[in-house]
């Protein structure tokens, strides 16, 4: 009797617990239909505590979806295997896309703790799918007879994508090797997360506190005002604070004559993750590189770069090095000329020192003023952020006949965020676009574009995209709106280009995930070409106080200075690209000393001491994320974007409808459904030529 009573109590407890869990999930917004405009995330309802149970449950749901595919007794077909895979994991994608957006742009300790817990869970879940032998056999059966199947071109490419993806994820390994791979993937996922957490902490650090007003000499009024407001935010009332965020860091280096303070601020930036403290990234990145070699070898590749580049346009490390070396020689030649110009100014002023990296911005600004009578502070009043954004929208509208309509009825995750509905000219809905442009402690540095929902049209159900852009641009101050630098203007146009790529996607399946890394930057970089064109500047560059259009005199100065500092910009970028490739062409698993490795890399290519690499290993977030053995992609795509923009120039019309329509139809809407070079040739009628890029950078 006692045993029965205990059993009944146990069952009642179990039922009660189950009901409590069910109730908890029912109150979780991720398990409700989103009754919001266009099913956008209800950010006002989503709380931190909702993510972990939602991710755990979503993993269970996808596991059941995979089991259903695997245990289907019917012969494998495209529909019951490949299409079913495309449809699986919908809830998990929904939850993780929102979580990743917040953890990148508005994170906090609680979200970071959730990430530490869920990252290894998600890594294991992905391996459980890709290392599922029965699932792979179904895919392989279809792949082996793909020519006999009645598939569309897109379906055939999707089948090939899945088959190759499974093979590259270890599907052909034996049981022991699969277990090794699981452990490597698990450790890599945790290390990558820790690297980025450390970098965020180091980037948010207060790098320079000034309490003597004399140390502000030379700084523009808006820079001083911003530093004062930052000081109040950071707990230094009555002082001035400079951080390692670009809107704070760059103006100080540009305008401060205080060389010792420039050096302090500059070194704080380049040493992020390399301070031998709790946020040090040296051992983390060495371990990541070592594990990547092990993984590549396990999968049958000589190096991590061989593994990555197999699916890119470049195809091999040899092709990337050849490309980088061809650009390096003219770039370093031009950079040395720029050094000479600045050294002459230093000597003339009686500086009695050799130009150093922390001097570059300051003396480059002097060169710009002397050669072109151009000061960036002359331009900022014409680059009010809202006007620049409208200018970028107007360019997209003139090219593609689309409209951006601000929506105040769509919830946002931070008050800085603006939301726009994107429509065709006839009013047809295309998608939703979120813009989040100002720095905050919870936001990682840099700028990026991503999606909360990607476009698809599976089984005739058209899903429209929800896209967001994130930046760290100059913030408004108490008495001035956000006034942007030229670099920030270009970046805003760049990220909108990525957004248009996602918004214009018109594929049946989730085609955006198949786009090679060195092609994905073409849609973003081509948009930068319009940003400073005289015709376009007159559209949006209006003085924030008077509303007057930017004068022709300033436009001429911008035009005349287009080759300014191109040696520096190309060399610092290429140095980082070589560093990335050198790390990822290592053939052994020795965990190297980071400073020694960097020095050997830069000595080999002949980097000049006056220019530091754009990133150092310990703060090179791109190569910890999706750009490992792929940072070269920006300049690879620069060849494409310069050549593609020439197509408009050749027509004598920056907004030529025929050219814009071809670019949208063959590049922006196709995702990865065709080989990128085939898509480019359909647009341009030929392969790209490097001439336009060399001319643009003054390297010809």
Brief descriptors of the model:
alpha+beta
Overview of the molecule:
This protein is an alpha+beta fold. Helices cover 58% and strands 7% of the residues. The protein has 29 helices and 9 strands. A 5-stranded mixed sheet has the order 3-4-5-9-6. A two-stranded antiparallel sheet has the order 1-2. A two-stranded antiparallel ribbon has the order 7-8. A hairpin with a 2-residue loop joins strand 7 (456-458) and strand 8 (461-463). Helix 17 crosses helix 21 and helix 20 crosses helix 26. The longest helix has 32 residues, at 317-348. It starts with a helix and ends with a helix. The model has no long low-confidence stretch (mean pLDDT 95).
Write the layout of secondary structure elements.
Blueprint: H1 2-26, H2 48-70, H3 78-87, H4 90-105, H5 109-130, H6 133-144, H7 153-168, H8 175-204, E1 206-210, H9 221-234, E2 240-243, H10 246-255, H11 259-270, H12 282-298, H13 304-309, H14 317-348, H15 360-372, H16 376-379, H17 385-400, E3 402-406, E4 418-424, E5 429-436, E6 448-453, E7 456-458, E8 461-463, E9 466-470, H18 486-503, H19 517-520, H20 522-531, H21 534-540, H22 552-560, H23 566-584, H24 594-605, H25 621-624, H26 633-650, H27 657-668, H28 676-684, H29 691-697
Helix pairs in contact: 2-3, 2-4, 2-5, 5-8, 6-7, 8-12, 10-15, 14-15, 14-23, 17-18, 17-21, 18-20, 20-26, 23-24, 26-29, 27-28
